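Subject: Sanity check before I submit

Could someone independently write out the structure tokens for this chain? I want to compare against mine line by line before I put it in a report. The sequence has 50 residues.
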Amino acid sequence: MPYLASALAPHNQRHCHQRLRSELPDCAVISVSHRPEVDAYHDRVWRIDG
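---
Independent answer below. Compare away.
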């Protein structure tokens, strides 16, 4: 169930991540982002510097 969060305002992005966590607590969420604030929504972060 992919969704595009980069087009969302930060407060809407936060709402989407909180809702994913509450509605699908056993689901793995993988985010690819250029926004550092997305780190707060995940237990693990893998950074690729190029």
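---
OP: Matches mine. For the report I'm noting this point. The chain has one helix and no strands.
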